[in-house]
Amino acid sequence: MAVTIHKANIAHARGIARVYVDAWRSTYAGLLPARALTGMSHDRQTVEWAHQIRHKGLHCPILVAHDETGSVVGMTSFGRARLEDRPASAPFLASGDGNGTGEVFTLYVHPDRQDRGVGRVLLGAAFEGLRAKGLNRAYVWVLGDNPARYFYERMGGRYVADREEDLWGVAVAQAAYGWTDLAAAQARLGLVRPARFG
């Protein structure tokens, strides 16, 4: 599937919200409390993502993937790693320079556009953005029971840590996947220089 990558602006907020809510409801059904998923709203998420773009976009870039019709079909956000979330059991982080470590905070593809290579392009673009910030390694957290964790394994991520987080009163297992060399990771993806974004 042909997609183009752009840095998100306010006009993309509704498209991001649609991807985010629909992906959560599709992916996390049975993994998170139903009340949390049914309580999600495209309108509320549009407001939330507009706020994120307006106030955090410089330090936490948000990228969108457009299909040939111009519709937002995926999104990702990334930045310097949140080291306060670093688990003691993660030698991946403990052995590296924390200042050179990035994190992929979010990566979602609309359920109707999954398994078409959109996630791969978004991940490559996130790696490119992290490298532009001088970060040479990165990790991502994913729900332990989320089948998408195997996407990160296919993309060369190595399982490096786990933790539990309380979400809506439920202890949810999470797993971290990491890449120690983002340049090599991009080469592995076949996306040494993915679509430019401004």
Describe the main β-sheet briefly.
7 strands, mixed
Output mean pLDDT: 87
Amino-to-carboxy terminus distance: 22 Å
Number of strands: 7
Low-confidence stretches: 192-196
Instruction: Compute the CA-based radius of gyration.
Output: 16 Å
Topology readout:
Blueprint: E1 4-7, H1 13-27, H2 34-38, H3 42-56, E2 62-66, E3 72-80, H4 91-94, E4 101-109, H5 118-132, E5 137-143, H6 149-154, E6 158-167, E7 170-179, H7 182-189
Helix pairs in contact: 1-3, 5-7
Summary, kept brief:
This protein is an alpha+beta fold.
Question: How does this structure look, described?
Answer:
By secondary structure, the chain is α+β, with helices and mostly antiparallel strands. Helix content is 34%, strand content 27%. It has 7 helices and 7 strands. The chain has helices at residues 13-27, 34-38, 42-56, 91-94, 118-132, 149-154, 182-189, and strands spanning 4-7, 62-66, 72-80, 101-109, 137-143, 158-167, 170-179. A 7-stranded mixed β-sheet has the order 1-2-3-4-5-7-6, with helices on both faces. Helix 5 (118-132) links the parallel strand 4 (101-109) and strand 5. The longest helix is centred in the first third of the chain and has 15 residues, at 13-27. Mean pLDDT is 87; it is low at 192-196.
